[in-house]
Write a structure and sequence with these properties.
CATH class of the largest domain: Alpha Beta
Distance between the termini: 54 Å
CATH architecture of the largest domain: 3-Layer(aba) Sandwich
CATH topology of the largest domain: Rossmann fold
Number of strands: 9
Shape: globular
Radius of gyration: 20 Å
Number of helices: 13
Number of domains: 2
Length: 287
Amino acid sequence: SQKFGFIGLGIMGSAMAKNLVKAGCSVTIWNRSPEKAEELAALGAERAATPCEVVESCPVTFAMLADPAAAEEVCFGKHGVLEGIGEGRGYVDMSTVDPATSQRIGVAVVAKGGRFLEAPVSGSKKPAEDGTLIILAAGDRNLYDEAMPGFEKMGKKIIHLGDVGKGAEMKLVVNMVMGGMMACFCEGLALGEKAGLATDAILDVIGAGAMANPMFALKGGLIRDRNFAPAFPLKHMQKDLRLAVALGDRVGQPLVASAAANELFKGARAAGFGDEDFSAIFKTYER
């Protein structure tokens, strides 16, 4: 069976690694807090003591970490990826980070004799569980082909976008649009409710027209029921908006609506909603 490493077992990583295990792959896992690895170990995954141990023992290792700081720590830290990556082994970082972080990790991996691919994903908890993520890869083409059997267990659309950095940029563009859409959606629902319109009627009208989309359909009912259990934590959306605004700075592109959305999400984090779903931005309109 195919052998893969998997580093990072949060909401997304645990679901993705589980799909590899269930498909019969041999999977070696590591997570910073070890209790997250227990369920996968029970399903037959092998636990490693460090990220270094994972990449040493696997031809291809996937990583799914929370943010640029976590991605760098796992790569450059003590007993990290760089200490074990040599001899042409592959490292596929699926975390959402800024292009510069991705390039820094890629250069370091290649300098140690490894191969690197960035592959951030579009999709949150349910697509991760269902294996229907959109995988935005960029970097080493041979590694892309080698990782493909793993990607196919985790995603429904897999695309190679060019050099390292392009996957990160695509992910930031997509999530920036998603954050802005969620802010407008919640603002509209809050306005409608305040004016005395039934939430179900608003959702019905939006769902019947040109604005209908899977996110509104999925999140609308949850917002109505005030169910903000995290599929995509709000703090991660704010991080993605922040990184997108920074990309706008770098390329000289004004981002008026998205900068405002970033401030809204920042306010929601300050209000203590960071660990709830990003739809909890709604709560800032209720206060």
